[in-house]
Amino acid sequence: MRHAALARRGTGPWSRDELLGLGWSPRQLERDTASGRMVRVRRGVYALADAAPDWTSPAAYRPFVEGVPRIAVSHESAQRVAGLWLPVDADERVHLTTAERPLPSDSVVHRHRAALPAGDVVLREGVPFTSEVRTAVDLALDRALPHALPPLDCVVRRLALGEAWCTPAGRVLLAAAGGPERERRAREDLVAAVSRAAGRNGHRRLLEAVAWVSAGSESPYESWSRGVLLMAGLVPEAVGLEVRGASGRQYFADLAWPSRRLLAEVDGLTKFGSDPRSVRERLAAERHRQADLEDAGWTVVRWTAGEPAEVIVARVRRALAGAAA
Questions:
Q1: C-alpha 164: how far from its chain's center?
Q2: Domain holding 324: CATH number?
Q3: Is there a domain that residue 300 lies in?
Q4: How far apart are CA 148 and CA 227, in angstroms?
Q5: CA-CA distance, 135 to 121, in Å (whole number)?
Q6: Which conformational region is residue 149 in: left (phi greater than 0), alpha (psi within -120 to 50 degrees), or beta?
Q7: Residue 297: helix, strand or coil by DSSP?
Q8: Residues 237-258 pLDDT 10s
Q9: Which domain holds residue 36?
Q10: Whether residue 323 sits in one domain with residue 248
Q11: Residue 279: what pLDDT?
C-alpha cells in the first residue's frame, strides 16, 4: 500500500527524509532496498525499482547524477542514449562513472571508478555522459575481442560517416574518394581516447582490439562474428569489400578473402525484414545476389545470428579449405 501511494506521487527519486516522512522506518528502507523493491540511487536517495523509465532518454538518468560532482553516465547506458552498438554481452544495469570512490554496485546500478577528463564528458539535456568515443573505449576495456569490436567498430564508423553511419550508403561512402581518409581520422580520434585509458585494467587487450577495428562493419553481429574468426586465427582479408557479379552489378561483401575467391555473409535477425512480404522479397533478392556472385567465380559462405561461435568457425574453415588457393 505504501509503495502504491508513493507511485501515485511519481517515480522519484526520493530523499531518505521524504520517505521517513511518508511512513517508512529506517529498518523498512533497509528491507525494501535489500529485497529490490526500492533502489538506492546514491547515499540518502531512493527510487521505486518497478518504475519503467525510457533508458534511451537522457532524462531517465538525471536522478542518478543530480547534485553529484565528477560523475557521468557511462558504458552501456551512455551507448544506449547515443544509439550506438552494444557488446553482445551487454549489462542492462544503469552505469555510472565517477572519479571519486563510488558506492558499491548492486542489481540496478553498476558504479565504476575512473578519471573523467573534461574532453571525455558531454552534456545531453543537461545530464553528463561520457562521449561516444570514451564510451566505446570503456565498453571494450578488458572484454574479449568478439565483444570489444562492436562498440569500437561502431564509433569509428559513426565518426567517419556522420549521419550516414547506419545507412546502406555507408559502404559506398567509405569506398568513394575521401572515404579512407575519413576512416583514418576517425581511427586517430579513437587511438587518442585509448591513450587516455593507459593504466586502466584491460588496456593491453584494448590495444590489441583497436588494431582490428574497421568502419566497414555494418552491424554489431557482423563485428562480433569477425572477432570470433580473428580469435580462431581466421583473419578476413577485407571488410565490406566491393565486388561485382557476373551481371556486372556492384555488391559489398561483409567479409572477404579475395585471394581465395571467398565471401562471407553475416545475416542478422532483421536483415530480411519483419513482415512476410518483405521477407519473401528480400530472400529472393539475396538468392539472385548470391547466384550472380557465384556465376562470377566467388564462393559464398554465410551464417545467421544465433549460431554458436564454434559452428561459424568450422564452417569458415571448411570453406577456406575448399576454396581455390
A1: 17
A2: 3.40.960
A3: yes
A4: 8
A5: 10
A6: alpha
A7: coil
A8: 999 999 999 999 999 999 999 9
A9: 2-48
A10: yes
A11: 62
